[in-house]
């Protein structure tokens, strides 16, 4: 969709050019007309304009002066000057002002059409180049943090093993740590349980993690410390080295790191209502030892979080608690690690992605089967609780009263005892999730249907005013491009084509009622009877008068 603004103080010129632009096949155009510079500036302030075709000698402000205003408001807008003058100075100034074209009104129609086509090609090429540059910049910008995170995750797995490999990786990924010195390591995790003031959403959780990172980075920067952090399996892993030149003994460094992480805990809790828990390794850890210590820190954190939240402690202070284990050795701790799967499942449900939701649900069910979980153990009940909460939240959020008012459905989601097995509960959830997706689809389609019906009614009632896409979009509070795409998807026709068909339909009805051509033109939003005649002939192959005569003759016979 390209927006074209025509600026000329002669109405017949505006209608003539507007008609010519209808010959630009393959391009959807939204054409606006302005007979004064004031009208033109109003359109430029109202919406983005892609191309301006302007008389170079407008009263009150020359086309060249208008071009300066256009460049200030829409720098990428293409300007075509249209004039009856052949003066060389005008042509020179037009080229100097980087106009796309300079056209004499006496030239052939094809010249005007081709010049506008050339402007569209330039816009498309410019957009393509900008898109490529933007994509390249985004890839470069995104690559370093992502690769850095992957590199640190590899370190936690014991890769790379040599000093030289670490040194090269740290240099390439801009990791500030010394590859030859031990690090202080810690692992933090957000508690799944909602805290007072927290909304528990994925956005809030991500915000909490970012806030924690920012807090720790800012604090350690002033304490002669080097920091690297990574997100691994949903946990924040901290690797810190204090500058040996600061004269800090290891116990003091550990205390400083613990105090810093505690500050991050406090900020997350007080600012976002999110509870962060952390386990720190005792003393410095060599790079070779890191791959062995990290899993212990992670597992210890998971075990401790079964009994407490919001804590920060050294690994030596972890409670030596037994681990509930299934028949095949899958522990509650390992089940808890899969919490990110629930987040993904929730996101797919909220986005209406049925296929991905069902695939994720199947993967989780397979995990429970391998772990031999049931509704008689805590891990199985936890899984059931996640499933129930997902569906209940969705029904409430989208006001699906026909589902949420079903006492039997709600009862089965609220009570594990209503199911003979965890597998049966999964089957029930799968069935009801299908119903939710179906209802969600109906709600969305109905919402779009209401918008399209409103637009059609609005067009019908305001056709005589000469409606624009921008006006329609403002009426339904949508972006013009989005409304154009939505309308075409729903009706199979563009807004422009629908307007043309409706104008023709109304014009034909009025011709059959023997109305005057001028009255018909005004009724369908076309100011000029001559332009209406050209529009009608283009649509039907006959002039309005020829159509009227054929209709009268047909009735007589």
From TrEMBL:
One Pfam family recorded for the sequence: HTH_18
Provide the HTH araC/xylS-type domain boundaries: 453-550
Q: Which domain of life is it from?
A: Bacteria
GO function terms (MF aspect): DNA-binding transcription factor activity; sequence-specific DNA binding
In this UniProt entry, the residues modified to 4-aspartylphosphate are 55
**Where do the Response regulatory domain residues begin and end?**
3-120
Alphabetized UniProt keyword annotations: DNA-binding, Phosphoprotein, Transcription, Transcription regulation
Does this UniProt record's set of keywords contain Transmembrane helix?
no
Name the InterPro entries on file: CheY-like_superfamily, Homeodomain-like_sf, HTH_AraC, HTH_AraC-typ_CS, Sig_transdc_resp-reg_receiver, Tscrpt_reg_AraC-type_HTH
Any GO BP annotation: phosphorelay signal transduction system
Gene3D superfamilies membership: 3.40.50.2300, Homeodomain-like (1.10.10.60)
The residues forming the signal peptide are: none
This one is known as: Two-component system response regulator YesN
Q: Which organism is it from?
A: Cohnella phaseoli
Write the lineage as a comma-separated list: Bacteria, Bacillati, Bacillota, Bacilli, Bacillales
């Amino acid at each position: 969709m390209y927006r074209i603004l025509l600026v000329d103080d002669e109405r017949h010129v505006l209608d003539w050019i507007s008609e010519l632009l209808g010959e630009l096949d393959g391009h959807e155009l939204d054409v606006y007309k302005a007979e004064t510079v004031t009208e033109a500036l109003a359109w430029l302030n109202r919406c983005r304009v892609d191309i301006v075709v302007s008389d170079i000698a407008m009263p009150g402000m020359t086309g060249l002066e208008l071009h300066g205003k256009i460049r200030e408001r829409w720098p990428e807008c293409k300007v075509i000057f249209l004039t009856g003058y052949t003066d060389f100075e005008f042509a020179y100034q037009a080229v100097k002002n980087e106009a796309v074209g300079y056209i004499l009104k006496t030239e052939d129609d094809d010249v005007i059409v081709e010049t506008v086509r050339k402007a569209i090609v330039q816009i498309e090429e410019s957009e393509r180049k900008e898109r490529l540059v933007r994509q390249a910049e985004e890839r470069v910008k995104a690559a370093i943090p992502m690769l850095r995170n992957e590199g640190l995750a590899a370190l936690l797995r014991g890769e790379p093993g040599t000093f030289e490999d670490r040194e090269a990786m740290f240099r390439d990924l801009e990791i500030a740590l010394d590859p030859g010195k031990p690090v202080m390591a810690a692992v933090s995790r957000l508690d799944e349980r909602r805290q007072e003031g927290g909304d528990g959403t994925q956005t809030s959780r991500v915000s909490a993690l970012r806030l924690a990172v920012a807090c720790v980075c800012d604090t350690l920067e002033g304490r002669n410390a080097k920091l690297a952090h990574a997100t691994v399996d949903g946990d924040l892993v901290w690797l810190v080295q204090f500058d040996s030149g600061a004269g800090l003994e290891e116990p003091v460094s550990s205390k400083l790191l613990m105090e810093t992480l505690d500050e991050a805990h406090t900020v997350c809790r007080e600012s976002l209502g999110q509870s962060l828990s952390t386990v720190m390794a005792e003393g410095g850890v060599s790079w070779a030892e890191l791959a062995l210590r990290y899993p212990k820190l992670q597992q210890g954190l998971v075990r401790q979080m079964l009994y407490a939240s919001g804590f920060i402690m050294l690994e030596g202070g972890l409670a030596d608690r037994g681990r509930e284990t299934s028949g095949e050795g899958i522990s509650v701790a390992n089940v808890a690690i899969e919490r990110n799967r629930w987040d993904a499942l929730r996101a797919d449900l909220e986005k209406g992605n049925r296929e991905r939701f069902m695939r994720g649900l199947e993967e989780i069910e397979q995990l429970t089967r391998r772990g031999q979980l049931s509704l008689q153990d805590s891990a199985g009940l936890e899984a059931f609780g996640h499933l129930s909460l997902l569906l209940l939240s969705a029904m409430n959020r989208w006001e699906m009263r026909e589902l949420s008012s079903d006492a039997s459905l709600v009862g089965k989601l609220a009570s594990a005892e209503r199911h003979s097995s965890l597998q049966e509960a999964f089957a029930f959830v799968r069935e009801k999730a299908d119903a939710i997706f179906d209802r969600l689809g109906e709600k969305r389609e109905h919402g779009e249907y209401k918008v399209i019906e409103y637009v059609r009614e609005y067009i019908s009632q305001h056709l005589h005013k000469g409606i624009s896409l921008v006006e329609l979009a403002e009426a339904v509070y949508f972006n013009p491009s989005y409304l154009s795409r939505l309308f075409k998807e729903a009706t199979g026709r563009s807004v422009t084509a629908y307007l043309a068909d409706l104008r023709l339909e109304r014009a034909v009805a009025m011709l059959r009622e023997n109305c005057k051509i001028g009255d018909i033109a005004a009724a369908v939003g076309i100011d000029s009877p001559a332009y209406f005649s050209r529009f009608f002939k283009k649509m039907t192959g006959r002039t309005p008068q020829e159509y009227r005569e054929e209709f009268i003759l047909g009735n007589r016979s």
